[in-house]
Each structure stands twice: as structure tokens, then as C-alpha cells.
Amino acid sequence: MRTYDFTPLMRTAVGFDRLARQIETAARSGQENGWPPYNIESTGEDTYRIEVAVAGFAPEELDIEAKENLLTVTGKKAPQDETVQRTFLHRGLAERDFERRFQLADYVVVKNAALNNGLLVIELKRELPEALKPRRIEIADGSALIENKKAA
């Protein structure tokens, strides 16, 4: 794995420390196993969908937490009933606990989540505060200023 040193960037840039942390986190998360598989889809200009394959997990065994700019999806399998003896001829279903993290951009919020046909679907939307949205600035007619100046 290749590592990057962001120290030169930090010497000359102010306020980009969060970006450097995000890049380092992404580089580290690339080393984790690929389970469970997932999709990230853009469904509109400011809407997104994450689909996580969680076949075999019940809704009460899944947890979704959004904290700051980090979305964490956790699956914890309930303990199996030990009184029922199971004999597997082939065991290909991974029934193990997992934790999957997604770094969210600023102002991206979770709108809802649903479990359907073994897929956990999480709907996201970017909601910019009114102060950050583009707005049209009216240009005043300069004649009103000139008239007030004449009256003075």
C-alpha cells in the first residue's frame, strides 16, 4: 500500500486538515475486507442511495448511525439457539458481524432506510442551509440615490 505525506500541504494551507484526514481514512479503509458488498448511487442532483447486501440479517440486528460526517452501518447477528443442532454440507453464507463506514460530505443527511429483499437501502440528500444557497441580488436603480443626494 502506498502512503502519502500531507505535511507539505499542512504548512501552506489553512483549514484543509479535515480533507487530509478524510483521504487518510479512505486509504486505510481500502485495506478492509469487502464484506458486506455495497453500492453507492447518485439518484439526482442532490440525492444519493447506498445499498448494502445484508442477506440473513433481521432489521433488529442492524444499526445505522449518522454522526457528524460519518455514516456507520453495523450488523450484529443474534446468538443462535444452541439446542438446535445444524449440520452444514456447505456453508457459504457469511453470518458474521460487520461494520461499514461511509464518509459523508457536508450537509448530506440520511432521509430514510429500509430493508427489502436482503438489501439495506439508505436514502441520502444534500440539504444546504439557506445562507449557502445561491441567491439573486437585486440591483437598485441609481436614480433613487441621486435624488436623495439632491434633497440634502
From TrEMBL:
Keywords: Stress response. The keyword Kinase does not apply. Residues 29-142 form the SHSP domain. Signal peptide: none annotated. InterPro entries: A-crystallin/Hsp20_dom, ACD_IbpA/B, HSP20-like_chaperone. The keyword Ligase does not apply. Belongs to the small heat shock protein (HSP20) family. This is Hsp20 family protein.
